[in-house]
Amino acid sequence: MARGQRKDIDGSENVPSFYGTELRFQREAAGLTLEKLVEGSFYGATYLSEIERGQRRMPLDLARHVDRVLGTDGFFERRCHDVRKAKQGAHAAYFAPIAESEVRARAIEEWGNALIPGLLQTPEYARAVINCTHGLDLPDEVEAKVRARMKRASLFETPKKPEYWVILHESLLRPTVLSGAEMAEQLEHIAGLVRRRRIVPQILPWNSETQPFMTMALKFMEFEDEPPIAYTEGPYHGQTVDEPGLVKLYRKAYDRLRAAALPPGASLVRIEQAAEDYRNGK
Q1: Mean predicted confidence (pLDDT) in 150-166
Q2: Residue ranges of the HTH cro/C1-type domain (predicted)?
């Protein structure tokens, strides 16, 4: 498709696409460009374009702004909940915006303190974690969550984007709720991503001074045309941090973890050795 050529949207594909199709229709019927419609809001034309293509959710404040400019009597504000619910899928409500942002990220960096991050999990590992943390979920609900987690990892199928860096505490290489063979498969999966040059790992040794950060996982994401964000998470909650000062503080903390961790090459050796130990029943 030639650059700048208008791409049609199939509003029948899903709820976000239907929402985006209606948004474009109303905008063009009013004779407004993307730039003109977002004028006076805190958002850019690229952001609105991604909403029209069904790729991004509409924030409530932007929906109210659009309704006011287009005179659509609260339509887009009322439909915001439907789109958020449709894009949430099997993800927890607090995590759905993060899963959506991963697809747009230029770079992702994570600190795994107590669990291997979701983007690196095998189905067996993900299933074990979900069964532990959501013990009352029905089998179909568990499998829907596993599928959603595996779908997130499809971003590693692209050649270079995103650049992914992960720091794992050494305890994550040790016995878990998985069998030895399953744990070997999990670690071999991570090693395979490293050998394909899709991720860069670092192992943080047991004796590192990391106590202040042991209680929370951290994720950072950088984008081409958006400010960076940080994300912290516990078993049943998550918080997106976008205030620049706080993101900077978390970044400094992450950099200290990185400085204390083993180099990537030595970390890969540790991961592969642990996998071999599991395979040999050690």
Answers
A1: 91
A2: 23-75
